[in-house]
User: Fold this.
Amino acid sequence: MLPRIVKAAIKGVLYFVFLYVFPIFLISQVSGFAPELFAGYGQLLNLFVAVVIFFVVASELTSGTIFQHAFNVGKAIILMIFFVLALNGGIVSLNLNVEGMPINVWADLRVYLMMLITIDLLGLAKSILQAVNFLSEKTEQQLPTPQPAS
Amino acid sequence: MRQAIRALGWATNVFWIILLFLTVTAVYSAFQISPEFGPYAMTAYNGTVTASLPFYIDNGGFYDISNLNLTTRIKDNRGTPISDSSTFVQLIPRGSNASVTHNMSMSISQMTTENLSYLLFNDSTFYVDIALKLNYANAVPFKISTNSTMPWGAPLSNLTLDRPNPTPMGAIVPLSFENHSFFELNGTMRLEIVDNTDHVVGQTVAVLNVQPQSSYGPGVYVSISGDPRNIRKARLTFQTTVFSYGPMVIPLV
Assistant:
């Protein structure tokens, strides 16, 4: 159990650095305008990181059981819903105020959203196949060993 | 089944890397696009006022910008459209730039014929809606819009005309206005004095040469036939290089 906890902790920290610390640093470095542009997405980023880390840690802690695959399937489904909600169905609109001037920014990210969902669907298919494979291997192990006919 | 799982695993990882790469480069590239706007110039000719706004876009990113469309809509403070202008750029390839001039044309003739004639006499504020649409990386339609205001100076602001003051040779009609516009008023102004039987009893044509932000006045000389007490109204007609307006009837009480 201890190696699993250590592995889960390390994975959790790595995901946190890669998904949270690195993007936040990148956004702050791009330009002075970027933090305002991305300000509305701060909470969504926090939620995304929390969801991913929860599922990664849970999957790691339950590795070797069917729950690991259940968590992977759950992660794929929840991330798909999250992406659709976060990107507002692919149409993103932001209202900014730059030096007293109201600016409306609108972007059609449906192609980008489609890519995200496609990748998630691949992950979902992989997790389902892993679960099926896990169950079939377990069933095979429980079958009586065939005896040679006398 | 293990091969299928492995293949799906690899495919997922590869696509995640590609998507991450696309995202990072797209965001980075978007901040490498630097638009610049030059000082705008106003010209007035043949009944049309044109505001020219030069702009320059340097696409320093990794992706092309296509179908760039800059549109401006100018409305008066009642919401009546005055001008709709659009400038289209087919393609700004990555690493290159484009210099374009966006022209916003306002028809002064339209102002004199429709319900915008008050703009000839009253200063106002125009509302300008600006929208920039483009297709980024041939995949992401993008639009940025804002609104602003611009002052409008009336060319015949504070136009006043009073009863003629008789002189030994005729009459001086007190007539004045201020040119608050940015253009010169060059042309003529025809003044007709009409009596109570609707007959023209005096008329004159004055040459106008009124510089921007300056006044015209204090009056024009008119030779009047008949009794000045019978004068009821005046008709004013403007024929300038920028607009023609009139006759406008001003009662003289």
User: Anything to note?
Assistant: Chain B has a mean pLDDT of 87.
